[in-house]
Amino acid sequence: MERPAVGELTPPNRTLMGPGPSDVHPRVRRAMATPLVGHLDPAFVDLMDEVQELLRYVFRTDNEWTVPISGTGSAAMEAAIANLTEPGDTVVVPGNGYFGGRMASMVERSGGETVTVDAPWGEPLDIDDVRAAFDAHDPDLLAFVHGETSTGVLQPDVPALTELAHDNDALTIVDAVTTFGGVELKVDEWEIDAAYSAAQKCLSAPPGASPLTLGERAMAKIEQRESSVNSWYLDLTELTDYWGEERAYHHTAPITNVYALREALRLAAEEGIEARWERHERVANGLRAGIEAMGLELASTSWLPSLNTVRLPADIEDATVTDELLDGYDIEVAGGLGDLSGEILRIGCMGHSARRSNVLSVLGALGDVLGESDGIDADAGLAAARKELSN
Q1: Theoretical Cys-Cys bridge with 381: which of 69, 231, 290, 311, CB 3.0 to 4.6 Å?
Q2: Which DSSP symbol is given to 331?
Q3: Which of 239, 270, 301 is the last residue of a domain?
Q4: Which parts of the chain sit beneath pLDDT 50?
C-alpha cells in the first residue's frame, strides 16, 4: 500500500455562534499546548484536585463526587443515567426536546422503563404534568433538561421539580449541558441529586472532559445497586478509585482536555460565577433585542440566554441561511432539530463567544442574508442591539 499524501491542517477560522462548540479562549488554547505528563504523574494528580475544586465552584456544590468524565457531554449523560438506573426502575423523562429522547434511550438500554412527560417543543415542562406522572407511575428517578439545546427553552423553577421528586422518594438527574457556567445553576441550594454538562458550550473549552456531580443520595443509590452498571468504562464505582482518594489506575484520562477544562474553569472563577451569569444574560439580551427589532421572533416561551431559537419566515429554509452564513461570513449557527427542523435558527451566546462584537457580527450577516424577505429590517435590528448592549 502506498503512503497517503496528506496536506497541512488548515481548518477555516470561524466565529462559532451555534449550539456548540463555542469559540475557545486563547488561554485555553495555550493550556492545550503545555507538556504532556502521565495520567498518574504527581503533577497531574495535583491538577486533578484543582479541577474538582473548580468544578464544585461552578456547580455551586460541596459534593465530594464532582469530576470530569472522559468523553463528551453524552458520556457524562450516560454515566449519570446508567449508574442511577437499575433494571426495573421507572424514570420520568421529558418529551419537549431532542435530548429528552436521548435520555429515554439511555434509560431503556440500562434496563429501566420510561414515562414521558410531554410539552410542545418550545415550551417547558408543566409541573402539574410531572406531578400527574408521579401519581400514576411512582417513579424512581426524574430526569429533565435545564436548558434544552434543541428548542432554546430554560426549564423554570428547578427547586419545585426537585422537591416534588424528593417528596415521592425519587432522585433527580439534571442535564446542564447548555447552562453550566453561563446560566444560573445552584446544585446544592436547588437540591439536585445529579447534574452533568459538557466543556464546549458555556465554558468554551474543547469537547472531551465533561463535568458531572453527584450528591450523597445519588452516591448511596449507586453504592447499593444490586446489579452491575452496564458500562465498565462509565461505572462510577470503578471510577472512584481514580478520581477518589486512591488515585488508582482505571483508564488513561484525556490529559490535554483536562488541562483545557482547568483553564476554562479558572477563567470562570476569575470572572466570578454570578458575574458570568450576568454577562451571558446581558449579551444575549442584545442579541434578542436585535432579532426582534429586525422583524423575527424567538421560538421558545421560556428564554434560554445561552441558546436562542429564532423562528424564520415561512418561505425560508434554515439550511439556506446556515449555509450562506457559513460560506459568506464564516459564522456558524445551526438549524432546527426534530419537531422544529427546517423552521428555526439556533444561535448560541456562550462563553467566549458571548461578546458584543460577535452579536453585532451575526446580526449584520443575518440581516444581509434575509434582507430581501418581507418584514425584515436589518438596520433596525443592529440599532436595537447596539442600544441594548450600550446599557
Answers
A1: 290
A2: E
A3: 270
A4: none
